[in-house]
């Protein structure tokens, strides 16, 4: 299998977040006996996993940065980074790494003119190029790690003609799978070349966590199975999910989606199994909750929710549903709402 990875990434944004580390990279480095992998990040660690865990040897990474200020920081010994992470104490070394990245970033242009890495892709056995068309030519699988969604069509159409018949094309960040598929549909490739569109999304910075999220809906079952098999070998864990849900599961709103989904599952169990309500009624009431709360947010804006719905309203209503599976999640929710309850209201309805 020939793989083309478009986009090498840059560690500066991860360092700025201050919450990431190299846990996954170090685990892979130890497993395959190659310390250089311990500080590989973004698509480079994902490529290393494919090469050393899934036995895919023909991998090319394409990025314009290879003709720019591609900066490799070599201040840190891979063995020291591995020791800190594998002992369960990554923060014994990560503050120094983040500080160094921020220092270097002050004088370095942002991508695509400058990027910060700790391991050169060539040292891990990858081919590199700045020519996307060269990278994707004859590639069986194209993994994209491109800038934000509204820029991607302009990048993709430059190499679209070089994509082979039946190629698998996945994205790893910054765009919903539905929109990603739409680009290739507009370019006519879904029909003329039968390209298989999905995702190979890490759901977090890939050097920190080993997981892959595979979108269903636009690729054949055979393709999805192949991606799942590779994801399990390379990333350690893989999940299938509807294409429409990739963003809510993997992006910034994942915390809210998780809370909502946990609420749906526990609500369903309590209402159907304890109260004995039929599925149709249970679903109708769940939909009412989700639709009307979303409608309120659309109407008044997320910044102004409390002005129109006091969080305290639930303290005397939702608490009556505190039974069965709901009892697992509702108490901390009520506590959180209680902290946000408006302090007082006047007879005219003005609250503070």
From TrEMBL:
The gene is hmd. Its EC number is 1.12.98.2. Residues 1-239 form the 5,10-methenyltetrahydromethanopterin hydrogenase N-terminal domain. It comes from the Archaea. This is 5,10-methenyltetrahydromethanopterin hydrogenase. Pathway: One-carbon metabolism; methanogenesis from CO(2); 5,10-methylene-5,6,7,8-tetrahydromethanopterin from 5,10-methenyl-5,6,7,8-tetrahydromethanopterin (hydrogen route): step 1/1. InterPro entries: HMD, HMD_C, HMD_N. Coiled coil: none annotated. GO terms for molecular function: N5,N10-methenyltetrahydromethanopterin hydrogenase activity. One of its GO terms (biological process) is one-carbon metabolic process. It holds the Pfam family HMD_N. Keywords: Methanogenesis, One-carbon metabolism, Oxidoreductase. It catalyses: 5,10-methenyl-5,6,7,8-tetrahydromethanopterin + H2 = 5,10-methylenetetrahydromethanopterin + H(+). Residues 243-338 form the H2-forming N5,N10-methylenetetrahydromethanopterin dehydrogenase C-terminal domain. It comes from Methanospirillum hungatei. The keyword Oxidoreductase applies. Catalyzes the reversible reduction of methenyl-H(4)MPT(+) to methylene-H(4)MPT. Belongs to the HMD family. The keyword Cell inner membrane does not apply.
């Amino acid at each position: 299998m020939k793989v083309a990875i478009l986009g090498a990434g840059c560690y500066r944004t991860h360092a700025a977040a201050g919450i990431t580390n190299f846990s996954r990279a170090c685990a892979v480095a130890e497993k395959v006996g190659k310390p250089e992998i311990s500080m590989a990040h973004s698509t480079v660690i994902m490529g290393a996993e494919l090469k050393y865990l899934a036995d895919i040897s023909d991998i090319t990474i394409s990025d314009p940065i290879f003709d720019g200020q591609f900066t490799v920081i070599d201040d840190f010994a891979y063995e020291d980074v591995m020791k800190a992470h594998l002992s369960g104490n990554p923060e014994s070394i990560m503050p120094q790494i983040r500080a160094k990245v921020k220092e270097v970033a002050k004088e370095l242009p942002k991508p695509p003119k400058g990027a910060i890495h700790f391991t050169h892709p060539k040292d891990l056995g990858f081919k590199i190029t700045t020519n996307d068309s060269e990278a994707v030519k004859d590639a069986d699988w194209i993994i994209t790690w491109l800038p934000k969604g509204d820029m991607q069509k302009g990048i993709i159409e430059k190499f679209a003609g070089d994509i082979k018949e039946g190629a698998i094309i996945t994205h790893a960040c910054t765009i919903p799978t539905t929109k990603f598929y739409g680009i290739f549909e507009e370019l006519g490739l879904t029909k003329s070349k039968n390209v298989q569109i999905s995702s190979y999304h890490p759901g977090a910075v890939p050097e920190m966590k080993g997981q892959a999220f595979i979108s269903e809906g636009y690729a054949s079952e055979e393709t999805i199975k192949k991606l799942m098999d590779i994801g399990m070998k390379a990333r350690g864990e893989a999940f299938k999910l509807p294409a429409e849900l990739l963003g809510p599961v993997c992006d910034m709103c994942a915390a809210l989606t998780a809370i909502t989904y946990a609420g749906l599952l526990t609500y369903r169990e309590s209402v159907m199994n304890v109260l004995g309500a039929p599925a149709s009624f249970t679903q109708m009431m769940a939909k009412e909750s989700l639709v009307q709360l979303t409608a309120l947010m659309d109407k008044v804006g997320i910044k102004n929710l409390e002005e129109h719905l006091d969080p305290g309203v639930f303290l005397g209503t939702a608490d009556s549903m505190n039974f069965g599976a709901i009892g697992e999640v509702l108490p901390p929710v009520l506590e959180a709402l209680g902290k946000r309850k408006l302090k007082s209201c006047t007879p005219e309805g003005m609250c503070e």
